Amino acid sequence: MYKDCLVSDVNKFLYGLEADLNSQKPKLLSDVQTLQIYLSPNRGVASYWDLLLRKARWEDIGCAREIMPGITSEFTDIAAFDYLQNEIAGHRFQQGPRVRPGLFQSLRRVCMSTNGDQRWGTHHDHHTIDQYFQLAWLPTILLGLPSVDHYCQSIMLGPLAVTNTLHIPTHPPKVATYHSPHRWGFWDLNKLPPIIKGSVNRYMSPHPIVLHNIGDGELRMTAGVRSAFHPLLEMLEVFGRVLVQKGDRVEGHHMDTSMYAETTIEVYNFIQLGSGGNTRSDLAQLQKVLDSVVDTWKVVLKDKADCPPCSACGFEYPGSEW
Parallel, antiparallel, or unpaired: how do β-strands 242-246 and 249-253 relate? Predict the structure, then answer.
């Protein structure tokens, strides 16, 4: 029953974790191998019962009324409640194994899935709301758990997303994958994905940027070509933000050259020459151009057909031969 779990309310899922030592819940949680978390489209703002039980704060209710045009105060109140609830859940994942050694020991795959509410990132002011809350604690804790080998994320803003930073977890997963069901996916400059140090980072672009009329001869990093590469180059800059997980804290650091080591970046279906699809020689030209301007990260451009299914949730490109 608890091997593969699809969860909306994480705290309800963890209910009973702190119960007496004879509770069966810790044993059930220790059997979980795959955990997919989503935001329910039917969730609402904090109730008075939540406020009385201190599951929500009074200052989070009505905090953005008439402040952000086009975004209802109800949506912002839901966002505040989401962040708080998921922060509580993150701390429970963090503290639980200290009280009960072996808890979550079987958890191998964590997925911030495409189920449920997909509104995050659909409005131009969502990025502003996201910056207000600064850090999504739940995904930050989960991807750094010692047992987790595979992490994936299909939404780049909100309380279930690690945003565009260089993230250095205590225990990096083997593979961190980013994919999106939306046409332009995560290449919106306001919702770029992170880079996880020490992991194989896979970026599955849902739609390639197509370079037309580039002329004959050797491909060069002209203004037009640079413009096409711009979202990827911006992601690699990570805006100078480095988050280092240290015990119960996450600290901001400045970038230094040692942070580029032990990290693999694979980018699938990002760019192609012409509308006929990539050939091996096309990718080789594009790779050479990218290498000419990126001398820090080792970034490998790959074709859609070469992408394996997501090692966390199993998502794969339509028509994939895998």
Answer: antiparallel
DSSP assignment letter at 232: H
The closest of 199, 209, 191, 111 to 151, measured between CA atoms, is 111
pLDDT in tens, 79-127: 878 888 888 899 999 888 888 888 899 999 999 987 887 778 777 778 8
* Pairing status of strand 299-302 against strand 242-246: unpaired
Residues making up the chain, counted from first to last: 322
Would you place residue 322 in the very low, low, confident or very high pLDDT band (cuts 50, 70, 90)? very low
Cβ-defined contacts of 207-216 (< 8 Å, 24+):
207/183, 207/269, 208/269, 208/270, 208/271, 208/272, 208/278, 208/304, 209/270, 209/271, 209/272, 210/271, 210/272, 210/273, 210/274, 210/275, 211/271, 211/272, 211/273, 211/274, 212/274, 212/275, 214/273
Report how many domains make up the chain: 1
**H or E segment to which residue 301 belongs:** strand 299-302
Is the residue at 80 inside a domain? yes
Cβ neighbours for 201, distance < 8 A, ≥ 6 positions apart: 176, 177, 178, 195, 263, 264, 265, 266
| Distance separating alpha carbons of residues 122 and 204, to the nearest angstrom | 19
202 domain-assigned: yes
Give residue-wise pLDDT tens across range 238-297.
Answer: 766 899 998 778 888 888 888 888 899 999 999 998 866 677 788 999 999 999 999 889
pTM: 0.89
Task: Say if 112 falls within a structural domain.
Answer: yes
Q: Are 56 and 50 in contact (CB under 8 A)?
A: yes
pLDDT digits 0-9 by tens, 183-222: 667 788 888 999 999 999 999 998 898 888 776 678 888 8
Which residue type sits at 125? Answer: D
Q: What domain range includes position 136?
A: 4-306
Q: Is residue 119 part of a domain?
A: yes
Checking if the pLDDT of 5 tops 80, the result is yes
Written as six digits, the tokens of 112 are: 């911030």
| C-beta separation of 176 from 151 below 8 A | yes
